[in-house]
Backbone:
């Protein structure tokens, strides 16, 4: 039927226009949401209520759907174990012989390490508490690589906590709600993780690109890495503990150094969330970002080579500095000030070495 | 309103495909491996987005596409609006070119579907490049594209079922 013969031809044009307007409205809504998205900041407030609700609903649903598959997987591995018990037994015997040889070496090294630590007065890191969780959903596309784990706020999981499988680092938590937490994989395009080469201690940033093997960016030094080098977390920036296994370095087809992730060797179905408090969680963000109030002139410490020294230690007594200590922005550095003063008072290069004979300056002005 | 248009009730040609796509996305997100390989991650929502644009222009369809895109963003944990915008751009492109597509053979329509998928992937690629300030892995994008174009039979089924439902847009 041609358009000319179509009795509804007159209605067609307005309908196309309204459909076009509906499309434009939908595009504007999508663009506005995209522009307002602050997912890349990885902060609690940026994750948003919508995402939290979505995760809280998705986690139990996918958990129920994936449960039969987990049972099926357990069943198939049980069948495999039954049929391959002899070869497995042979392999384990060989592994046990190798482990027995290593055991004595490990014990003597541990003893030596403890003695060195005692001699140097080293403070070793305390053990990190962890929470086990099951992965219930898995996004593995080129634009988002995340997992949904079924442990959330009720088990003290917080944004920034590192996540590991039994083989190595998987990623870190970027969103938490009750009963679920969203894990950003190391392979996600927004993932940046400070790592180091175990052999050379060379630092790098592990950069995800949506593919299975993230890149080693910002490598420094001459030949800092070679094929097969073990990559571990460096702990730089305080975001992650040092020394978590990440993977093995390989040269990619594009010539860049990449990492074959240890966690990729098997399906990541169970994970351990390390309740590690990073630097950003420990500091008081509000206090850190609070605008500093300019202190009163008479309370300014005299810091500078040419400034006159304070008349006596009693002039810098706590009661004279009390108003300055009450300012919220100067609370942290205030206790350190007295310790920094004595060397300045003892400086021999001061042109006026008799403070007791001269009247004290009316006000201590800073000299820059 | 024609009698034929009555068959295009929103529940059957919009609601049901949306539900099917959401379920398929959920099933393919399960963390299982088959012979050591993870499941592919096709964009199931491309099939109805393409079919709706081919069947006829609609006021509800863009909002259906928007809803599916937002679901993908929330469920996959990507930037909010990424897939919503990508799918809508592909939907708009197909809607603009539907007069060329309508009535063509199945292999030809499959090629058109591949072009629409390429448009959606390209938009998602560019948005990700802008927001993450990094280039997504091209091989990973290619895998997702190939997995998605295999879904054309689902889109064809939808087109076959509702193509003749509204004679005004033939």
Residues:
């Amino acid at each position: 039927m041609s358009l000319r013969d179509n009795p509804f031809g007159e209605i067609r044009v307005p309908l196309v226009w309204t459909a076009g307007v509906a499309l434009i409205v939908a595009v504007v809504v999508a663009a506005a949401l995209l522009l307002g998205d602050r997912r890349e900041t990885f902060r609690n407030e940026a994750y948003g209520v919508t995402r939290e609700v979505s995760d809280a609903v998705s986690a139990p649903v996918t958990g129920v759907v994936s449960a039969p598959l987990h049972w099926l997987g357990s069943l198939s591995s049980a069948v495999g174990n039954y049929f391959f018990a002899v070869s497995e037994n042979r392999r384990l015997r060989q592994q046990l012989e190798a482990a027995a040889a290593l055991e004595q070496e490990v014990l003597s090294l541990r003893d030596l390490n403890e003695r060195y630590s005692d001699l140097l007065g080293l403070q070793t890191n305390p053990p990190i508490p962890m929470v086990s969780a099951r992965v219930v959903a898995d996004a593995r596309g080129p634009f988002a690589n995340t997992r949904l784990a079924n442990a959330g706020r009720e088990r003290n999981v917080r944004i920034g906590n590192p996540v590991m499988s039994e083989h190595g680092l998987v990623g870190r938590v970027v969103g938490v709600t009750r009963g679920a937490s969203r894990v950003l994989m190391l392979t996600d395009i927004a993932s940046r993780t400070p790592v180091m080469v175990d052999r050379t201690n060379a630092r790098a940033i592990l950069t995800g690109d949506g593919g299975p093997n993230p890149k080693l960016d910002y490598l420094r030094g001459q030949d800092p890495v070679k094929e097969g080098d073990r990559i571990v977390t460096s702990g730089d920036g305080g975001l992650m503990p040092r020394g978590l296994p990440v993977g093995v370095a390989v040269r990619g087809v594009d010539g860049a150094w990449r990492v074959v992730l240890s966690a990729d060797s098997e399906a990541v179905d169970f994970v351990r969330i390390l309740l590690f408090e990073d630097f950003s969680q420990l500091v008081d963000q509000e206090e850190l970002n609070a605008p500093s109030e300019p202190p009163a002139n008479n309370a300014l410490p005299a810091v500078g080579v040419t400034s006159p020294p304070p008349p006596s230690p009693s002039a810098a007594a706590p009661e004279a500095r009390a108003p300055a200590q009450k300012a919220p922005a100067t609370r942290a550095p205030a206790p350190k000030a007295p310790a920094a003063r004595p060397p300045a008072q003892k400086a021999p290069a001061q042109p006026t070495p008799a403070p007791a004979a001269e009247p004290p300056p009316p006000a201590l002005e800073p000299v820059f | 309103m024609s009698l034929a248009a009555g068959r295009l009730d929103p529940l059957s040609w919009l609601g049901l495909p949306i539900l099917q796509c959401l379920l398929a996305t959920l099933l393919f997100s399960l963390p299982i491996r088959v012979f050591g390989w993870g499941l592919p991650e096709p964009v199931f929502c491309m099939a109805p987005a393409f079919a709706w644009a081919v069947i006829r222009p609609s006021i509800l369809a863009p909002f259906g596409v928007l809803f599916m895109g937002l679901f993908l963003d929330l469920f996959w944990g990507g930037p909010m609006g990424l897939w919503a915008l990508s799918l809508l751009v592909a939907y708009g492109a197909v809607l603009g070119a539907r007069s060329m597509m309508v009535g063509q053979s199945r292999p030809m329509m499959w090629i058109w579907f591949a072009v629409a998928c390429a448009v959606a992937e390209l938009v998602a690629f560019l948005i990700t490049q802008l927001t993450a300030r990094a280039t997504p892995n091209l091989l990973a994008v290619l895998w997702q594209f190939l997995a998605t174009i295999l879904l054309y039979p689902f889109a064809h089924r939808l087109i076959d079922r509702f193509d003749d439902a509204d004679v005004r847009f033939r």
In short: Chain A touches chain B through 66 residues (CB under 8 Å).
